[in-house]
Every structure is written in C-alpha cells, then in structure tokens.
Design a protein that fits this description.
Four Helix Bundle (Hemerythrin (Met), subunit A), globular, 113 residues
Length: 113
C-alpha cells in the first residue's frame, strides 16, 4: 500500500476528530469491529464523512484490517500509542504506526505525559 494513502486517511481522521462529531466512538468499539473484520463497513455506516475510504482498494482494506488486528492484539498498545478512550484517535495512531513500519522508523519508547 502506498504511504500517501495512510497519510491521507490519517489527515482525514484528524480533521474528523477536530470536529468532535465522532467523540462518542470508543476504543473498545473500534477494537471489536477490527476483531470482527467489519471495521470498514462500520466506519462507512457510522461516520461516513470522517474519511475518504474510496481511496482504498479491497486489497488495501485487507492489508489494513490485518495490520490493525495485529496492533489490536499487542498487549502494550495503550502506553505505546497514547490512546485511552476515543476510537478515531486509535485509528490515527494505527495509521502512524503503519507508516513507521513502512518507512523503516523504529520508535522504541514514546512518552504520553
């Protein structure tokens, strides 16, 4: 997947977060959708204006879904990604983490204070 797609989605979600419109979506809710493999359907139905998902091919969605599932299953996720409650922040963090992996940046420790 091209990194510009991840960056574009990250900016879209960041803009959506700034609006406050989807603050009620929780981390637990999104993690459940990721685990069920329904995250993109959920996003399309729940917050259709949050991001332009049309830039993603079916293969892109499969790749991101698998990557987000891996991130969801990492036990030390919250301290590392600095996300505790609002779900769209989790997706932004996952997109940044995916960018880090694709461009070869290894972030060992991030302070969330």
């Amino acid at each position: 997947m091209k990194v510009f797609k991840l960056a574009s989605l990250g900016l879209d979600f960041n803009n959506a977060l700034d609006s406050g419109k989807w603050d009620n979506i929780t981390v637990a809710e999104l993690k459940e959708q990721i685990k069920n493999g329904t995250i993109f359907d959920y996003l399309r139905e729940t917050c259709p204006d949050a991001a332009d998902l049309s830039v993603l091919t079916p293969a892109d969605k499969q790749e991101l879904g698998n990557e987000w599932l891996h991130f969801t299953n990492v036990e030390d996720e919250f301290p590392k990604l600095c996300v505790n409650s609002k779900g769209l922040y989790l997706l932004v963090a996952y997109l940044f983490e995916g960018l880090h992996h694709r461009i070869g940046i290894n972030i060992q420790q991030i302070s969330c204070t």
